[in-house]
Amino acid sequence: xxxxxxxxxxxxxxxxxxxxxxxxxxxxxxxxxxxxxxxxxxxxxxxxxxxxxxxxxxxxxxxxxxxxxxxxxxxxxxxxxxxxxxxxxxxxxxxxxxxxxxxxxxxxxxxxxxxxxxxxxxxxx
Amino acid sequence: xxxxxxxxxxxxxxxxxxxxxxxxxxxxxxxxxxxxxxxxxxxxxxxxxxxxxxxxxxxxxxxxxxxxxxxxxxxxxxxxxxxxxxxxxxxxxxxxxxxxxxxxxxxxxxxxxxxxxxxxxxxxxxxxxxxxxxxxxxxxx
Lengths: 125, 141
Hints:
The complex is a heterodimer. Chain A is mainly α.
């Protein structure tokens, strides 16, 4: 039980922090307008020059291996919805770390997502 | 910058994320079931588990699917808000439950389906908000 809690915590905190770092790196790269292999390769080369990208990948790797660990213990239809709690963390990060404007309507949607996750957890018992 | 409405391009990439993310999760889950439960975090056991993990074809398929998800995710993040992409891609939770139920034979309680439906309503509400509120560098549009 404690191990599961630790793994879920790592998925949500480390995984979300990693995604925020990757999002920050991609904002520096700028919008990818063309999806030819050359253009995607160019965006990739720009992305790997960003320090935030490497930190993000490291944190996401920790989140990924924690996910593998918890998948060995619980059903995927339980594990994945529970990790949606990271939405609240992610939205806060979007607002304060990336400077995004989170409208009241978006907050309402995030709250609904969190409420849905709570039901998924209650539904397990 | 005036916040812009979600574009077709954003929805296409969300669709790719919603397909490859859950598929990856289900393949990883199937692979980890064959590896067995990870019950403690001591180094010797973790090495043993890692050896089994990286010799499983199902887990490698899961990793490829997750990589495709990640590429779609990175590309959409180059123009859309993280706080829009994250909830908009939550439809994946319904996909995971459906795949878990039908592909892996997991029992999904009615309350869990209700929870997933509420998550999808939340996604719809978020999907109605502007998809980008920050000005990316070098983008004058």
